[in-house]
Amino acid sequence: MFSGAQVSLYPMSDDFVGIILSAIGALDPYRPNFRIETDDVSTLIVGPPDQLFPAMRDLFVAAAGRGVHCVLAATVSRGCPGEPDDPICTPIADSRHDRPLEERVAAAVAHVEAAPRTGRIVAAQFSLYPLGSGHHMDEIYGCIEFLKKSGVFDRSKNFCTKLRGDAGPVFATLSEAFLRFGAPQGHVALDLKVSANSPTAL
Amino acid sequence: MFSGAQVSLYPMSDDFVGIILSAIGALDPYRPNFRIETDDVSTLIVGPPDQLFPAMRDLFVAAAGRGVHCVLAATVSRGCPGEPDDPICTPIADSRHDRPLEERVAAAVAHVEAAPRTGRIVAAQFSLYPLGSGHHMDEIYGCIEFLKKSGVFDRSKNFCTKLRGDAGPVFATLSEAFLRFGAPQGHVALDLKVSANSPTAL
């Protein structure tokens, strides 16, 4: 398994460099478990699939805490066949893929309900791509059922799904959608934008 | 065929609202051919697949012209099976999908070479997802061959490909990759970030 994300942070502020640099400290607890590489467009984080969304949540909540309009964009991937297995990308914990779909939907909802609240309201928009063969349409429908029960489902849009709520359950919902549905060893990609402090938030 | 994009513009400036509002005028020439809907996270443009990347190029070059660090992020899609056919989404012009792959690679390179220059240097990062069945690996390899011959190929990264150069040939390369490879009626999604004026550009 190879899992990770290309992550970018966009603070809509003249002080974007300062906001990014001070938010990056939020990744410190994850550094021992991740490989992290930065260039001018994005930061690559490679590591355990279960920790990708918690790491992005902490990074984004730290940046948004400054109060300026801020967006995190990420391309998240697991099981990409072109990438070598990497021992730091541990298998999905508590995968439950052997259990019936209905039970997994209920477990995913329970994980979201148990997610710690951050006090930061965000809007998230994402597209989930089950790639290659081995994914069943039942899994996709199960994921949609889960999203609608997540408590943070906002609406379906063209090409993507929109969530809204506290960053805790929103990132937990994204993580559950990414980890718990589709073939456990299959290739899944997720295209994500998360926004906070928008002056036009509806 | 249904084709379009969810597009967001992120100017890293206290005046992000002013920069976005003044850049949006660049979409005026496309408005007769597009359906456009905006919310707090992104703007949906639905219309002819061939005009999606020219419209995004003009929007981005207008925003980046102010000199501040600016990013455009988009989720681009054609042939999504969940969307109804829409008469404003005309079939791909000059598709050539009946011609041999090598000839199509050469035609795509020629289109990029003929693209008008904008004078604006950008970095672009994208992932191309051929979804569902009907796409052949030969088409993917042909697309990779084209990208390497495009003149704006920078490097392969984990989960994505990076381009760098004038916005004209960069957006033309993205458009060719999106339109000319994979099944002509198949579902293709493209996850894109384009960056200009980055203080850390390499």
From TrEMBL, chains A, B:
Protein name: YKOF-related protein
Residues reported to bind thiamine: L9, T43
Pfam families: Ykof
MF (Gene Ontology): thiamine binding
Annotated Thiamin/hydroxymethyl pyrimidine-binding YkoF putative domain residues: 4-83, 122-200
